Amino acid sequence: MDRSDNDAPRARGAPPPCPQPRRVLRTGTYLHTSCPLCRAEIVEGDWIHFRAIAPDGALGDLRLSARFNVFDQESTIALGAGDQVRDLACPRCGVSLLDAKLRCAQCGAAAVRIRVAAVRTELDLLLCSRYGCHWHDVPEEDRQRLVLEQGP
Ligand SMILES: [Zn+2]
Ligand SMILES: [Zn+2]
């Protein structure tokens, strides 16, 4: 009897990759925000809190809405539309959160990088540092797993 069938090697390759569905970050989602450097939470109630340096060098506080695609903000420094803050820093460790390389794709201002936990994942979110500019994005490496819902 021919038993060669029993000797046939079994397919031992890794199972085919199971593509993960991309999550969607929807307008109004609460962003549990932390500093990407010291990991301290920088969200207080409905606001993400930054230490800000105004264009004229004045030091103050800047708060952005912790709801995705909601662009409310409060500031103790005077900012007009189009103004670009000189710096936005973590209120806990004081280190600048301006990204050294990434710029806003709409106006070219420096991008701010924060760490957010939302839609059952954790990711970096990039924001424009120019007052009134609503550009935001996720870093290249996160685009495969997350889609940002377009704002109103
Ligand atoms: Zn920090
Ligand atoms: Zn911008």
What's the topology here?
Elements: H1 4-7, E1 23-25, E2 32-34, E3 43-44, E4 47-53, E5 59-65, E6 73-75, E7 87-89, E8 98-103, E9 110-118, E10 121-128, E11 136-137, E12 146-148
Parallel strand pairs: 1-12
Antiparallel strand pairs: 2-9, 3-4, 4-5, 4-7, 5-6, 8-9, 9-10, 10-11
Structural key phrases:
single chain; 152 residues; mainly beta; five-stranded antiparallel beta sheet; 12 strands; elongated; binds zinc ion
Describe it.
This protein is an all-beta fold. It is 3% helix and 37% strand. It has one helix spanning 4-7, and strands at residues 23-25, 32-34, 43-44, 47-53, 59-65, 73-75, 87-89, 98-103, 110-118, 121-128, 136-137, 146-148. Strands 2, 8, 9, 10 and 11 form a five-stranded antiparallel β-sheet that branches. Strands 3, 4, 5, 6 and 7 form a five-stranded antiparallel β-sheet that branches. The protein has a two-stranded parallel ribbon with strand order 1-12. A hairpin with a 2-residue loop joins strand 3 (43-44) and strand 4 (47-53). The chain is elongated. Bound molecules: zinc ion (ZN) (2 copies). The site of one zinc ion has 8 residues, from loops.
Summary, kept brief:
This protein is mainly β and 152 residues long. The chain has one helix spanning 4-7, and strands spanning 23-25, 32-34, 43-44, 47-53, 59-65, 73-75, 87-89, 98-103, 110-118, 121-128, 136-137, 146-148.
Give the strand tally: 12
The total of helices stands at 1
Oligomer state equals single chain
Let me know the average pLDDT: 89
Distinct small molecules? zinc ion
Note poorly predicted spans: none
Helix content bin: under 10%
Question: What general outline do the C-alpha atoms trace?
Answer: elongated
The largest sheet is: 5 strands, antiparallel
Q: How far apart are the termini?
A: 73 Å
Which structural category do the helix and sheet elements fall into? Answer: mainly beta
Elements, N to C (H/E) = HEEEEEEEEEEEE
Measured on Cα atoms, how large is the radius of gyration? 22 Å
Beta-strand content estimate = 35-45%
Number of separate structural domains: 1
